[in-house]
Amino acid sequence: MPSPRLTVPLILAATASICSAAPATPAGAFNTQVKTLLDAHCTDCHGEDVQKAGLRLDTLPVDFASAKTSASWVKVLDKMASGEMPPKKEERPPQPALQAAMNYLRGELHHASLANQQKQGRVMIRRLNGTEYENTVNDLLGTKTPLKEMLPEDSTTAGFDNVSSGLDLSATHFLLYQEAATKAITAAIPVQPPMPFSNTRTGLEMTQKGPYFKQGLGRTSKLQGDALIIYSKLPRYGLCSTASAPVAGRYKIQIKACAVGAETKPVSVGFMTVMDSGREGPVLRDVRDIPHGEPQIIEYEIDLARRQSFVLNFLTSWDIRGFKKPIEEYTGPGVLVEYLKIEGPIDAFPPPSYNAIFSGVPLKARSVVKAENTGGRVPKIPDNRNDSQWHADPLVPDSANPKEDAARLIRAFLPRAFRRAVSEEVQQHYVQKVHGKLDEKYTFFDAMTYGYKLILSSPDFLFLSNAPATPAAASGELASTKLDNFSLAERLSYFLWSTMPDNELLSLAYRGELSKPATLQAQVERMLNSPKANNFTKNFAGQWLDLRKIDFTIPDPQLYSDFDSLLLWAMPLETELFFEEVLKNNLSLLNFVDSDWSMVNERLAMLYGIPGVTGSKFKKVKLPAESRRGGVMTHASVLKVTADGTHTSPILRGKWVLEKIIGKPPSPPPPDVAAIEPDIRGATTIRQQLDMHRNTPACNSCHAHIDPPGFALENYDPIGNWREFYRVTTRTKAGIVNLPYTSRGVYRGPDVEQGAVTPEGKPFKDLADYKKLLLEDKDQIARSLTKKLLIYSTGADIQFADREVVEQIVAKLKAENYGFRTLVHEVVQSRVFLNK
What we know:
The chain folds into 5 domains: about 10-120, no CATH class; about 125-190 and about 395-465, no CATH class; about 195-345, Jelly Rolls (Sandwich), CATH 2.60.120; about 550-775, no CATH class; about 785-835, no CATH class. Helix content is about 40%, strand content about 15%. It has 29 helices and 21 strands. The strands form 7 sheets. Strands 2, 3, 4, 6, 9 and 11 form a 6-stranded antiparallel sheet that branches. Strands 5-10-7-8 form a 4-stranded antiparallel sheet. The chain is flat and about 95 Å long. Mean pLDDT is about 90; it is low at about 1-25. GO terms for molecular function: electron transfer activity; heme binding.
């Protein structure tokens, strides 16, 4: 584990000493160390007559304090450092002169960037993105309400959707925040008193209650007494489902079932939910194995919305589709279901969500509250009232002392909602708002809903303040950029959990202890060991590796009939569990490039050709010596999101590797260069097409970097199969090739073209060779991931002064075998993370 760090004041003092020790170099030094070199080697392409890439250097101001100008000088420096400027075909400047110019630019750019950070901080105020808003509201209220879908989509900046400069705010946002808050508050209140619900459906009853179910009987399913045996994925109009839930809540499901078939193996099935409306298809919630043998009772708990049912279904379509004999003779895999039973809700009453915002306030039917407030006749609520009647006249909170309860509840809610201590003035402001509505004869529930909506759509809730411990001067300049303990708790919690700080973090913040290095290290360990850390996997790894795009394309069923829903479910899980295994055990982050293990289940093992793996559960498996897997680039998830569903492109995959793994993204293509369209007839190879494309001078320099990693991955098809030839839809001389896992075949197209040469002139024949070349520069792999973690954790892109911190972290990682968990600790203890 990382050793204790310097305290933040010492870090700042050291930073200040660095800054004072590196004053701006006189202009004469620029002329001798930089201008002379530029005039001799650069201005022919970036001068008065020619401005390649729109850059002119002979008139570029020597003003490193200007954001626009310094950005241009950063590009110049980076091109010099990479050897791209001057171009390799031109005369190279003497190495001492080149090094002197780079040293000058680094010093000036670092000095200017650090000075700006010390005056203003590096992270502007940042609002919660949609994911963080939903998580925070649900954790605050104790609800499980989908809210993100109600909000405008967040834009992505520097690879992530939590970067402050990309998170705008409009009047539409505020309107939708009000609507989302109303939905969440309403969901926190139970509609009716506890009314136990229980329903059991036999297989026979499921066929009778499912519309048009009999169309599949005798073809993909059959009855055996009261039991239902299904052999293939059932259509949405014939579902093996429970009765629908009468109210939202958590339910217990009992399934009495067993796998059948000659192979005597368990069968993987999907646990799904579907709404009664039938407007949307079933949603996959989990995958479980049904054991072979005698029927067993399997219990499962699940959160259901009102009028939502639990569904059991296959995720694959077995070969029974081509079985021409009577179904009674079929011996392939299937599942026998004796019955499905639903019971619940099993939540406490009133639920924790109610106590979070209305603790101590009794619940009454809305009609009763209205009658009592207006002096009308109070209706008697019958004990046998059904759920539809309760939804027409739901329970609402009703206080005997509304102003006292309002003040108590609002004052208790504010510090949790604002994630810090709240002044008496602010507390009184919100209390008076609610009291004002009570004075206007609002019901207690409506007045409190108004108050809670104000809080949940206020800047103090919506924004992470990144507040410094010492207030800024009247000029706006900061006396210190050290974050206060509450802002540090926020930054840490939204980094690792994508939600609000819990009571332990806030307690440490109140005591002023969170910023101590040892305390921070202990909290990072606690948080990474929490189930909430799954949000780090979902939101950091999901964006870093593009796992969020797993559903963006649908593989062509004619070419890829070996693709199914079970494989789709397994794809991102492999990568997420791989990420968590590396993090949990502090394995080297170089495993993301290459590894001799992976996390697979039976379906993925079939795809990868790994023997001995059974069942839907994932296991850490050592890869066979001859395996063509290892590292995330060979994961089916990554191979799918870097293809279009039908074809692969070395350009798309090469760009992905440069951005995600190497950390050197290519420049955007010129606007007047047409994209390469795949030749579906196979008349020209992708290498031939790219060779012609690279003849364009504007394209050649970038494609020299993009194409090699793209060709390294060309042996993998859009669903992750290893391939030696392309699949095509038209007849070829090579004929038909049968596919694994399916009775279908495809036409064999041209052989896959392997191998390429790196920009440094190093040849490789396949991905295994290419990964070895990547790992020759381990620091660059670590540097790339360090930058991404710093961006994601702070909500701001890398600035020039941050480069020093990145290099310090990489040096420490190198001494610790590049441990990924160590990297997370180093990021949290860094100057970049601890300061505004």
